Amino acid sequence: MMRKIGVLTSGGDSPGMNAAVMSVARSASLYGIPLIGIKRGYNGLLRKSTNIRDDLQELHMETVLDIADAPGTYLRTARCLEFMDPHYREIAVNTLQAMEIDGLVVIGGDGSFNGAKELCEMGVPCIGIPGTIDNDLGYTEMTLGFDTAVNVCVNAVRAIRATSRSHDRPAVVEVMGRHCGDIALMTAVSTGSEIVVVPEVPWTVEQVAAKLNKQLARGNTRATIVVAEGCWATMAPFDLYGFLTSHGKQCYEGEPMSAVRFASVMKRMCGMVEARASVIGYMQRGAEPTARDSTFAFEAGNLAVRLLRDGISNQVVGMQKGKVMYMPIDKALACKKNFNRNLYDLANSL
Ligand code: ADP
Predict the structure, then answer these.
(1) Atom 26 (ligand 1) nearest CA
(2) Do 5-145+289-334 and 147-285 come out as alike in CATH topology?
């Protein structure tokens, strides 16, 4: 029997984290296990605050009843670089022992799962729930927050496309996802955007300009280019400074490519009067979760608590073939993430 369970959110926040905490709380209450919320990811376990409630807080049903639909994470989230160091992980284990916490639910991405794996190896039973908008985990068909992030981007791109249409001008839209292009691809396909650029597929500025020119030649003066944020790191070498300054545009040497700069280059390469850039940014992470994300959070939270209650640990919860499942952390982290290349090719060719 678990004396107490702990729950924390770690890494970048994602819509649905609160819904998952709520589900963990309801499940723990149902099985009669007290629940402790750990604040700011693994930092709370290192007892950095002078006021204990800033690190650890008992989560009663009443405390969490209102948070399920709330954006952000009630427990706060943060990165905790010290946690890479075994000495600090010892402190965390001591905190857990002192608090009589016999199992931990970790809601976060692959980094947070690595932290959970380390804790398991030190004898602390852990279960991971994939809380990240990036959808970059190979073992699961969805991560908590991805669906919400895509829907935020779809709404934004639809609005941007309406204005693009009104003014007959193309648009560049940057979406999140770190090294994963899933948000960009789903957004582009769902909105009928003509060009999508993702980190998984090597690309050059000239290739995108050629695609945009093809759209212009077909009479489409208001194409949308959806770009994943990780693309700037995978772009083939391009002399941004030389190009912009030779076209009479101010630019400092060494300036990195960005959505705004990219729109400026496209405008000049394709001879257009105007091309606007929008960066969707944190709206993707801070949005209210969609029903799909909330449902996954609800099921995942319950499964995590049941696993701990039944003495099963060192696992992560996910979704396969539309069903909530679990598998060992090690195995899950080793799964290669597949990119839907067929859909990408179709999106860029129609
Ligand atoms: P995400 O969980 O969203 O992938 P990060 O990669 O930033 O986010 O990881 C979140 C936190 O997980 C880190 O700040 C650190 O506390 C912990 N973590 C990440 N990698 C490891 C690791 N190899 N060992 C121990 N803890 C880790």
Answers:
(1) 115
(2) yes
What CATH number labels 5-145+289-334? 3.40.50.450
Residue nearest to atom 23 of ligand 1 (CA): 114
Give pLDDT, residue 61: 87
Q: Half-sphere exposure of 183 toward its Cβ, with a 13 Å CA cutoff?
A: 36
> Which member of 13, 55, 134, 136 is catalytic?
134
pLDDT over 90 (residue 337):
yes
Architecture of domain 147-285: 3-Layer(aba) Sandwich (3.40)
Q: Is the pLDDT assigned to residue 69 strictly greater than 90?
A: no
Tokens 């257009």 found at? 272
Sheet containing strand 126-130, strands side by side = 56-58, 35-38, 5-9, 103-108, 126-130, 315-320, 323-328
- The whole-number average pLDDT for the span 53-60 is 92
Ligand 1 centroid from CA 138, angstroms: 17
The Cα 5–Cα 1 span in angstroms is 11
pTM of the entire predicted model: 0.96
Residue ranges covered by each domain of the chain? 5-145+289-334, 147-285
Mean pLDDT of the 275-282 span = 97
User: Would you call 134 a catalytic residue per the annotation?
Assistant: yes
Q: Is 43 in the pocket of ligand 1 (CB under 6 A)?
A: no
